[in-house]
Amino acid sequence: MRTMLALAACATLASAACQAADPLRTGTDAVRDQALSDPTAYAVVASLSTEVGPRVAGSEAAARARDWGVAKLKALGFSKVHAEPFPITAWARGAESAVLTAPYGAGLAILGLGGSVPTAPDGVEGEAVIFRAYADLLAAPPGSLAGKIAVVTQPMARTQEGSGYGAASPMRRSGASEAARRGALAYLVRSLATGVSREPHTGALNYAPDATKIPAAALSVIDAQKLDRLAATGAPIRIRLKLASTSAPATGWTVVGDIPGTEHPEQVILVGGHLDSWDPGTGAIDDGAGIAIATAAARLAGAPAHPPLRTLRVAMFGAEEMAFTTAAFTAAHKAEVGDIVAIGESDEGADNVWSVQLPAGASGLPQMRTLAASLAPLGIFVSPEPARFGGSDIAGLAAAGAPVVDFRQDASRYFDWHHSSEDTLDKIDPAQLNQNVAAWGAFLYIVSHSDVSFRPQPTAAKP
Fold first, then answer.
1. Would you name the residues annotated as active-site residues?
2. Helices (H), 323-427
3. Is residue 330 over pLDDT 70?
4. How far apart are CA 258 and CA 333, in angstroms?
5. pLDDT digits over 352-375, tens only?
6. What is the domain class of 94-244 according to CATH?
7. Which of 231, 138, 145, 236 is nearest to 182 (CA)?
8. pLDDT per residue over 253-284, tens digit each?
9. Cβ atoms of residues 390 and 248 within 8 Å
10. CA pair distance 325, 328, nearest whole angstrom
11. Are 145 and 126 in contact (CB under 8 A)?
12. Are 44 and 291 in contact (CB under 8 A)?
């Protein structure tokens, strides 16, 4: 109530006087400014990237990441820190190779796609059919690829908001099953990447239940371009592919820690990133950065000098890359949805936030107008468009009714390195990382230090 009265009073004052009269704005700006020079986020991502490194869900490294997460949250002052186990299927990469055997011999740089079945020990070899557009593969008739290897070489578009990745994802996710429906022995896809290098980018696939499971891998951008040029000559192209992947039942863990609210501890603002990563790099931008941003922002917003009224909760989700976290975390926390004030996930690297999408109808709330004013000096706009996604790990809780916030980062560089051996700590700009912390910290401070509600309010009955 005190906050609402201050906000109402501010409406009649000049801007500078309003800020002075509004303790919520003053506190928000203080957290924002402190975040810009706070070393916590970079220290967290450097520790995870260096001391744990790559951490595929279900691996020994993932268990080390779990222990690292528990220790890190405790060391940073979080309480009720624990790991929540859930069953997964652990996919492990084995020896891999791809060789061009015609029109001449040459190696191809590949990475098997997560979840791919292995080839026979001697591999699989066949004529390669090059599709320069994914739509051309979909247009191929049943049986047309019998005994052949399908190769899609369509490039991915570079976009600020990352929409190029969403548009290209079906090539990786569904391409193997589409090729199998047409009789293919195996499937290769140009890496979903915006950079031009010989480092392939991996990622998960999804086998359709009505299609044969065939081995699948991602080609480096440079090798995909070479195959395009070879196909243009009309020369026959043959490829031999070997994948020795394995899958087995395993356990994943999501690590959770709280900064309890002093007045309404049952009301929770949940933020996080995913703890697992792919194996070629060290998982710095995907998603060590998200872990660091969420942790540092919650710690600043809920500091002992200004304890939150509502609980701030950080989750380090344990198996995002193979999409195992969502169902497990939703099942474990669905009963709490009514007490969740807001949820959000950071999972798009470490470059600057440029826009924030709030729950539907929230941008006009007094507290969110305060947020917009506080974020403006960071070059961030509060979008009039409502958040529609927010992150794959929180999608189940969002569908169950938890209000979602989505901080949109500049993804112009992110997919140069995403899911590749180049996902390493040197790609993180500490100043841009801290801009993220400032944005999230401002939001978390406002929501945890006020009575703002993002849920639809009941309308008064007409007389």
1. 320
2. 325-333, 366-375, 395-399, 414-417
3. yes
4. 15
5. 999 999 999 999 999 999 999 999
6. alpha beta
7. 145
8. 999 999 999 999 999 999 999 999 999 999 99
9. no
10. 5
11. no
12. yes
CA distances from 100 to 171, 226, 234, 236 (A): 22, 11, 15, 11
What's the pLDDT tens digit per position in 151-170?
Answer: 999 999 999 999 999 999 99
Q: What is the pLDDT of residue 195?
A: 95
Q: For residue 314, what are the contacts with CB-CB under 8 A and spacing of at least 6?
A: 73, 78, 256, 257, 258, 271, 272, 294, 295, 298
Torsion of CA 287, 252, 258, 28, to 10 degrees: 20
Cα→Cα distances 198→5, 150, 203, 244, 416, Å: 60, 20, 16, 21, 11
Write the CB contacts of 124 (distance below 8 Å, at least 6 apart in sequence): 149, 185, 186, 215, 240, 241, 242
pLDDT tens digits, one per residue of 5-58: 344 444 434 445 455 569 999 999 999 999 999 999 999 999 999 999 999 999
Overall size of the chain counted in residues: 463
* Listed residue (394, 385, 424) closest to 316, CA to CA: 394
Residues 6+ apart with CB under 8 A from 184: 129, 145, 146, 148, 149, 150, 214
CATH fold, domain 2-89+249-448, is Aminopeptidase (3.40.630)
Tokens (6 digits) for 451 = 């009575």
Give pLDDT, residue 98.
98
- Please give the structure tokens belonging to residue 63: 């268990």
Q: Which tokens in the block code for residue 445?
A: 């401070």
Distances (CA, A) of 412 to 171, 219, 377: 20, 21, 21
User: What tokens were used for 449?
Assistant: 């230090």
CA distance 463 to 461: 6
Q: What does the block give as tokens for 120? A: 């026979």
Q: Whole-angstrom Cα distance, residue 2 to residue 9?
A: 11
Phi-psi region of 379 (alpha: psi -120 to 50; beta: other; left: phi over 0): left
Nearest to 131 by CA among 46, 190, 45: 190
For the whole prediction, is pTM greater than 0.90?
A: yes
Q: Where are the domains of the chain?
A: 2-89+249-448, 94-244
CA torsion sign for 372, 377, 378, 381 is: positive
Tokens of 252: 């994943």
- Which two three-digit tokens encode residue 64? 């080390």
Q: Report CA dihedral (368, 369, 372, 373) to the nearest 10 degrees.
A: -140
Distance CA 149, CA 129 (A): 6
